[in-house]
Design a protein that fits this description.
Oligomer: single chain
Order of helices and strands: HHHEEEEH
Distance between the termini: 43 Å
Shape: globular
Strand order of the largest sheet: 1-2-3-4
Number of domains: 1
Largest sheet: 4 strands, antiparallel
Helix content: 25-40%
Structural class: alpha+beta
Length: about 120
């Protein structure tokens, strides 16, 4: 049971709940050692999908590595990557791998279904 409360899992949870769901891209400065790109990406994405909500489906943490599986849904109401707003509700899933030290993410890689999102917008 204590594994559910590990600091690295809690850190990953903050990404989805506080940064994404509460619309606080500036939190990247607290969570990442190199926050600029993260803050910019989240800000731009939330301008296009302002009601976007992420659900942390699974999080596994071992040592200084954490892996999170997430799903998200929101409405496309702003221009995104050349696509004009459609008003369509979209859903996608993804995985984030992170290396963590001293309570901050040093390195991370996120793989998500961008192609599926584009198909939903075009569809």
């Amino acid at each position: 049971m204590s594994d559910l409360l590990s600091p690295n899992k809690a850190l990953m949870g903050r990404i989805y709940e506080e940064m994404w769901n509460k619309g606080n891209p500036a939190l990247a400065a607290e969570l990442f050692t190199q926050p600029a790109g993260v803050e910019r990406f989240v800000s731009e994405f939330l301008r296009s999908f302002p009601d976007l909500k992420h659900m942390l489906e699974t999080c596994i943490a071992e040592g200084n590595i954490a892996v999170a599986r997430f799903s998200a849904h929101g409405t496309h109401t702003g221009q995104w990557q050349g696509f004009q707003p459609t008003g369509k509700t979209v859903r996608y899933t993804g995985l984030t791998w992170a290396r963590i030290a001293n309570g901050k993410i040093l390195e991370h890689h996120t793989e998500w279904d961008k192609a599926g999102l584009i198909e939903q917008i075009r569809g």
